Amino acid sequence: MAALRLISLDDRAPAEAPLDAYSRVVTEVARRLAPSVANLRVSRRGARGRRMDGGGSGVVITPDGFLLTSAHVVAGADRGVASFVDGRELTVEVVGADPLSDLAVLRTEPSGLVAAELGDAERLQVGQLVVAIGNPNGFAGSVTAGVVSALGRSLPTRS
Fold first, then answer.
1. 70-97, pLDDT tens digit by residue?
2. How far from the centroid of its chain's Cα atoms is residue 2's Cα?
3. Residue 118 in contact with residue 61, Cβ under 8 Å?
4. If we measure between CA atoms, which residue out of 72, 74, 88 comes closest to residue 38?
5. 67: exposed, middle or buried (C-beta count within 10 Å: 0-12, 13-18, 19+)?
6. Side-chain-facing half-sphere of 36: CA atoms under 13 Å
7. Beta bridge partners of 93
8. Which neighbouring-strand residues pair with 32?
């Protein structure tokens, strides 16, 4: 079985394996952002007064206690708990939510929080590689990567 070897465009030296380079970037992004990502747990009253539990992901956007999440994560709730990779659990309150953009702002006590370094959305381009870190379905520390497929799209809503 022959081995496949990648070479640089100028054929002078072997090129770094592109997937290895990409893997290092994704790993570094995950390492740097993990302290800023929270697993959110919220409770809300459902039909007939039943309590319904839900959750999602949030990201610290300022060191003084503001987090950003999706509006659907906190819909119908005014408080919740944010869990961080270092084991801390902090109470959060919903400051505001915009269902049309599906964004919500939360606030917690500023206890050594690390704000995520966010990119410039104005410079984002179709085809650019991106990394997402979160807690889908309560699975803390999930990391995925992909490609920006489009910009400027809006989705229809029921309301």
1. 999 999 898 999 999 999 999 999 999 9
2. 41
3. yes
4. 88
5. buried
6. 22
7. 79, 107
8. none
Kindly give, in sequence order, each residue whose CB lies less than 8 Å from that of residue 141, ignoring residues fewer than 6 positions away.
Answer: 30, 34, 37, 85, 133, 135
**DSSP structure string for 139-159:** -TTEEEEEE---SS-------
Pick the closest to residue 92 from 68, 118, 116 (CA basis).
68
Whether the predicted model's global pTM rises above the 0.90 cut: no
Tokens 């007939």 belong to: 48
DSSP secondary-structure letter at 15?
A: P
Average pLDDT in the chain:
86
CA 107/CA 46 separation, integer angstroms: 24
The one-letter amino acid at 122: E
Between CA 83 and CA 92 the distance in angstroms is: 10
